[in-house]
Write a structure and sequence with these properties.
There is one protein chain. The protein is an alpha+beta fold. Helix content is 20%, strand content 38%. Strands 1, 2, 3, 4, 5, 6, 7, 8, 9, 10, 11, 12 and 13 form a 13-stranded antiparallel beta sheet that branches. The chain is globular.
Length: 281
């Protein structure tokens, strides 16, 4: 079984070009967080400004789990404070993912942040993988083995749909890499990016599951953005606070904020999702 560090280990092919593998889970397509994380690593390997401050990405097409990925990094700009990179991920010359990334060495400046919410400690919660297995067993099945849950220990705190001002999907998720990641800061940042894709579609669906809409839905991630505010270790517990304030015209929007266990806000996330009625549903 591969660990996350293996997935983030890219094979250099040429200047700015890398090959990446894909772990075999039971998904129908490559987990989006994997593409995001591998793009962070590939771009970081082309600049001396190792801290990515932002990533904006589009999921162009479903990736094939059985074929290797080729990552091409374009050096868009190298400035005194910031560097910009463009990453395109292809399979057999078919574009599946595209991302623009910014890197910043850091500068002195003012600081403020919103507080982390009060939620149960991760040790008091059940591993999401075990919850899935138990629910499947109750229905006479075995449950799917998702690659993300093999890499990441994820422990959800399901929250009621917010109704204070309209309707909002809400959820919190403790997460950490199941295996140590060493001291390479790039791998920790990439692992946070990997895990940031977990649950954002789910939180967008929660209002409709709770409201009992009933009809089957087509769902997928359309794009993803993440802003890294501070460095953090991804093999220690982090809390992803997720919310979905809107779904309309076949699309929904989810936001997230990621905190260290002691309450430091380290990253912010946004993702637009496809959420539409299935044809004939």
């Amino acid at each position: 079984m591969k660990i996350l560090a293996d997935v983030l280990s890219l094979e250099p092919l040429a200047d700015g070009r890398f090959r990446a593998g894909t772990p075999h889970g039971e998904e129908r397509r490559i987990f989006g967080g994997q593409l995001i994380a591998q793009a962070v690593v590939a771009a970081a390997r082309t600049t001396d400004k190792a801290h990515c401050n932002s990533l904006h990405a589009y999921f162009v097409a479903a990736g094939d789990l059985k074929r290797p990925l080729i990552l091409d990094v374009a050096r868009v700009r190298d400035g005194r404070s910031f560097a910009a990179r463009q990453v395109e991920v292809t399979q057999e010359d078919r574009l599946v993912f595209s991302a623009a990334l910014s890197f910043h060495g850091g500068d002195p400046g003012p600081a403020h942040q919103v507080d982390m919410p009060d939620v149960p400690a991760p040790e008091t919660l059940e591993d999401q993988r075990e919850v899935r297995r138990r629910n499947a067993a109750a229905k006479g099945g075995t449950g799917k083995a998702f690659s993300a849950e093999q890499m990441i220990d994820a422990r959800p705190v399901e929250q009621p749909v917010g109704r204070e001002r309209g309707i909002e999907g809400r959820r919190c998720l403790w997460f950490r890499s199941r295996a140590p990641l060493g001291e390479d800061a790039v791998l920790h940042q990439a692992a946070i990016a990997y895990a940031s894709d977990m649950g954002l579609v789910h939180v967008g669906l929660r209002p409709h599951m709770e409201l009992g809409d009933g009809a089957p839905l087509d769902t997928a991630s359309l794009d993803h953005a993440i802003w890294f505010h501070r460095p953090a270790r991804a093999d220690q517990w982090l809390l992803h606070v997720e919310r979905s304030p809107i779904a309309a015209d076949g699309r929904g929007l989810s936001f997230g904020t990621i905190y260290t266990r002691d309450g430091e806000l380290v990253a912010s996330v946004a993702q637009e999702i496809l959420v539409r009625w299935k044809a004939g549903g």
